[in-house]
Amino acid sequence: MSRIQVALKVTDVAKATEFYSRVFGVEPAKVRPGYANFAIVDPPLKLVLIESEAGGVLDHIGVEVETVSDVNAATQRFVDRGLTTFEEQGVECCYARQDKVFVTDPDRLEWEFYTVLGDSPSMEKHTATCC
């Protein structure tokens, strides 16, 4: 199953977590200091909250896919269509280890196609973009 990921910058992750729990009727899948994410079934959405002074701002949009093969297929599709890509494999960020590929739209909005390989103890961004 693929689903869209929306990563939001919020000024207070606890308040935002409570709000989005009420909006979507689900508890977060993961909560860490300054970070929370929801794996929402209906609509199929991965909602990521990242605490930041710049609240109310879209951080990036992602598409979570099931396998590394799906990430590789997206990468090839982008290359075949003449898009510039940025790839990362086995990176740790947002409390997860991931393989991912990025494309950037004409207004510099990043789209991340990724798969989660496992959990990570750290929010640290070891990548250009994270989550």
What does this structure look like?
With about 130 residues, this protein is of the alpha+beta class. The chain is about 20% helix and about 45% strand. The protein has helices at about 15-25, 70-80, and strands at about 5-10, 30, 35-40, 45-50, 55-65, 85-95, 95-105, 110-120. The chain is globular and about 45 Å long.
Summarize the structure.
By secondary structure, this protein is of the alpha+beta class. Helix content is 19%, strand content 45%. The protein contains two helices and eight strands; from the N terminus they run βαββββαβββ.
What's the alpha carbon Rg, rounded to whole Å? 14 Å
Largest sheet: 8 strands, mixed
By secondary-structure content and strand pairing, the structural class works out as alpha+beta
- Coarse morphology: globular
What is the count of β-strands?
A: 8
Average of the residue pLDDT scores: 87
Helix content: 10-25%
Spatial order of the strands forming the largest sheet: 2-3-4-1-5-8-7-6
Element-level helix/strand string: EHEEEEHEEE
| Percent of residues in beta strands | over 45%
pLDDT < 50 runs, ≥5 residues: none
Distance between the termini: 18 Å
SS element count, helices: 2
